[in-house]
Structure formats: structure tokens, C-alpha cells
Amino acid sequence: MRRPRAVWTPVRRLLSTARELRVLGIETSCDDTAAAIVTSSGRILAETNVHQHAVHEQHGGIVPGLAANHHLMNLPLAVRSTLEQSGLRIDDLDAIAVTRGPGLPASLSVGVSAGKTLAAVHAKPLVGVHHMEAHALMARMESAHVRFPFLCLLVSGGHTLTLLAHQVNEYSVLGSTLDDSVGEAFDKVARELRLPWVDAQDGGGAGPALERIARQGDPRRFALPVPMDKSASARLLDFSFSGLKAHVRRMREAGQFSPASPQDQADVAAAFQHAASRHLAKKTALAFKRAREMQVEVTCLVVSGGVASNLAVRAALEDVARREAVEMVCPQPRLCTDNGVMIAWAGVERLRLGLLDPYTIDFIQRWPLDELKRMGYERRASSF
């Protein structure tokens, strides 16, 4: 497809200018409708995040059709609110970035359609963003210490993986979950404990509810097994949380604790959180070992994704980073959960390298992160 000169010719001049670039990011991969405008110097000019916790709590989890319908209702107002906060118009922006995948198909389609339309109508460069790359790069906006290559642990409701970030658009996945993600396990154990969801402006849901009550619990009262800890799987870099989640369910079914007892809730939550955190820490330590075997000297450990806001998880991983003599960097908690800022910043990082997309792109539901480099992107900035 021939590139429209109205868009691509100014990109060459845009990338050579010394002024700050301004990128609008749109995120609709799951149930949060988010938009933000970020500059190439890392300034957040405006952001809007519309949560759907009240919509999905009564169903015990995310309902894809409802999530997509609410994105349709919320996204136009989220974009308008973000522009009004920033005092900018679409014409003042340098690019539009939108989550292309992975995620819920119906939710992704809402954001991708909106992002493509805005970019095409206003003749702006379009950047289709990999959701997990956005999580990985978020720490680079907040800290100058995050330099390539770095080791990254991505922990969220949909993903759990360790990866080596070699540079923008190039990642090696070292380990991934064999079953449930850690965020999904947190949510399902919270459901076993019948915990009401936390509805917070900076991120909420079932997982944060479990973390909150676990602070009052004794993790030693219920001894939960650390997954993949006593067999050949202990040497694997992959994760597994389904057994830990099932263990809690069997305990409830056997009457070993009562979800009606606040103390039982707190103690089981604390025990689960302790076991999950140890599992993440052990596999992250193995990832450091693998990086050394690959002769990659990592500069730091980045922990991102929604579960990275969990303080117990952070503490366990800080111990690993300390033993490896590297700094651990986490985005601030509100930027660990899904948000428009991370999409806009990933857009900035990719725009700088000329990694742009045509207006014909579609969403990608399942999208392994290490496939990015093989998708035909070229470092085209110098050719515009």
C-alpha cells in the first residue's frame, strides 16, 4: 500500500525536530477505557481512565461483551476529556498510538477502530502498540536508569512472563505461565474468599481486595505449597498458578476455612500471597541466571503490569534484585495497571524509530511479544 504523502512526508521533518513530540495513547484491551497525551520528554499532559469495576463485579469477572459495549460508550468521552485537559486539539498531536493486542477481541476492536479513524481523518502517523511492550517500556518514561538491555517481569491479569528487553521492538521471552496468570489467580482466590472488589481511581478489582485483607493475616497459619518447587519443574523458567488456586478451593470445600470468617479470609489471603510471591521471586532468579548464560549483562530489573502494584510481590522481587546487585524499577502503582499513558509512551518510543503502521491494521488477539521483530517492521525513520 502506497504511503499517503500528506502523512509520511512530514514524519521525516517531525523526527528531525528538536521540539517535544506529543502522542495520544488509547487503551481498550480489557475493561478499562483509557486515553492519555504524553510528550517525548516523559511529561503527562493529560489522562483519563474510566473503570468498569461496578459493571463486572456482579458477574464475578470480566464479561467481554459488556466490556466492549462500555468501551463504545466511554471512549469518545475519554478522548475528548483528555484533549480538553491538555488544551490541545487533534491537529496539535504528532501521532496516535493505540493498543493493537493482545487482549479481548471485542474490546480491542473498539480502540483500534477509533485510533485508525482519528489518525486517518487528521493525517497523523499511526502506531499500533503491543500491550505488553507498553508495560515493559513504561519504566523508561519514569526512570533514566532503565537502559537496554534489561530483565523484565510482566505480571498482570492476563500475562505472567519474564523477558529480556534488548531494545524497542526486540525481546526474548525467557519464561511464561503454563496455565493461569498470577493476576487471574489473585482474582480467583479472592472469589473463593468472597471478597468484595476494591473500586479505586488508580486501579481496583478482586486482586487489590485480596492484597488489602492479606495485610491483616498470618501467612503461617495455612501452609500453601510454592508451585514448581520440588521436582524437575523447579529448574524451569516458566510459571504455574493453577495448582495454588485449586489448593485454596479444595481447602474451602473441605471446610478448612470459612469465607464468612474475616480472620480466615485474611490468613488464607496472606498465605496465598506469600506463596505466589515466592514463586515469582524464584523464577525471576532463574531468569537472571539464564541471562548470564546468554552473556547478556542486564542493567536492571523492571517489574510492571497490574500485579506489580502489590507491595508483597515487590518486596519479594526486591530481594532478588539486591542479590543480583541491580536496581529494581517499578512504575508508580497507578501506571502499573492498564492505562493510556503507557500506550502513549510506547507510541513515543516507536515513533522515534519510525516504527509506524498503515491505517489498514487490525487487532491481534494472541500476540507473542517475541514476534514483534519478525513482523516486518523496519527502522524506517531515515527513509521518510
Automatic annotation (TrEMBL):
Binds 1 divalent metal cation per subunit. GO terms for cellular component: mitochondrion. It comes from the Eukaryota. Residues 44-345 form the Gcp-like domain. It catalyses: L-threonylcarbamoyladenylate + adenosine(37) in tRNA = N(6)-L-threonylcarbamoyladenosine(37) in tRNA + AMP + H(+). Keywords: Acyltransferase, Metal-binding, Mitochondrion, Transferase, tRNA processing. Its cofactor is a divalent metal cation. One of its GO terms (molecular function) is metal ion binding. It is found in: Mitochondrion. Its EC number is 2.3.1.234. GO terms for biological process: tRNA threonylcarbamoyladenosine modification. Homodimer. Belongs to the KAE1 / TsaD family. Required for the formation of a threonylcarbamoyl group on adenosine at position 37 (t(6)A37) in mitochondrial tRNAs that read codons beginning with adenine. Probably involved in the transfer of the threonylcarbamoyl moiety of threonylcarbamoyl-AMP (TC-AMP) to the N6 group of A37. Involved in mitochondrial genome maintenance. This is N(6)-L-threonylcarbamoyladenine synthase. It comes from Coemansia erecta.
